[in-house]
Design a protein that fits this description.
single chain; alpha/beta; Rossmann fold; 2 domains; six-stranded parallel sheet; four-stranded parallel sheet; 11 helices; 44% helix
Length: 268
């Protein structure tokens, strides 16, 4: 059996495109829908209730558009809303994000892992559980990457101001001895090159986009929901709650292509 319907992916803004890119590389036959909730980004400083409400509305919208599965491509929204979404739609495969603490703990040589994530992710019970489960034998030092999401949202990936801000966030992790840095926000993945330039070749930089794409593939396979291998994926559809023109410009920079950008309905 197979299922030609699209996969729905959403994030607080454009960061989830880093996950969508990994899904497209692994499952090129799958059509995809994407919602960038840029009008309310960043989620990292918002309340859990607010993020949960936004996630419920967007998930419902994507399911109305025919999505067969959902990818919650946002660490902050995962912490706030994944359990609620699974309870609301128990029969819909939902793939969520979490910082790569487990692989980072396995990769560290010196026993210190740095995690760069949003305030909401770092303060969540889900992140605390990750540390309890996978960081017994390592020291985890954290840093909220305040301000970084906004640079990605406006398409600024390499300005002096961005590099200065990145340095201010990464240096404390390096000073604490981290030899692995986890990018715990999907937006930060688009800053990977700049991060690696700052931390140097002796520090590994890890994110979870590839692992999420692999997990999605396994879930779709087990549920007989993979698209036919011969299917040609439909053009990507993108909706935003932000500025469509800015979204189009940023996506062109991030993905090298410019899909048509639609505005989310006012009810959302």
């Amino acid at each position: 059996m197979s299922d030609p319907r699209p996969i729905g992916v959403f994030d607080s803004g454009l960061g989830g495109l880093s996950v969508l890119r990994e899904i497209g590389a692994r499952l090129p036959q799958e059509s995809m829908l994407y919602v960038a909730d840029s009008g309310f980004a960043p989620y990292g400083e918002k309340s859990q209730d607010f993020i949960r409400e936004r996630s419920l509305k967007i998930a419902h919208f994507l399911l109305e558009q025919g999505a067969k599965a959902l990818v919650l491509a946002c660490n902050t929204a995962t912490a706030a809303a994944a359990a609620t979404l699974r309870e609301r739609w128990p029969d819909v495969p939902l793939i969520a994000m979490e910082p790569a603490v487990k692989p980072a703990a396995a990769a560290t040589r010196g026993g210190v892992v740095g995690v760069l994530a949003t305030t909401g992710t770092l303060a969540s019970a889900r992140f605390a559980a990750l540390l309890d489960n996978f960081a017994h034998d390592v020291k985890v030092v954290t840093r909220p990457g305040v301000g970084l999401v906004e640079f990605v949202e406006r398409g600024d990936f390499d300005s002096p101001a961005l590099r200065t801000l990145l340095h201010s966030h990464l240096q404390p992790l390096l000073d604490d001895g981290a030899d692995v840095v986890v990018l715990g926000c999907t937006h930060y993945v688009f800053l990977r090159e700049q991060v690696e330039a700052i931390v140097g070749p002796s520090v590994a930089v890890i994110d979870t986009g590839g692992a999420v794409a692999a997990h999605l593939q396994r879930r779709l396979l087990s549920a007989d929901l993979l698209a036919p291998a011969t299917q040609v994926a439909a053009p990507l559809r993108v909706w935003t709650s932000g500025d469509p023109q800015q979204t189009a410009q940023s996506i062109a920079s991030l993905l090298g292509s410019t899909p048509a950008i639609e505005t989310l309905p006012d009810a959302l």
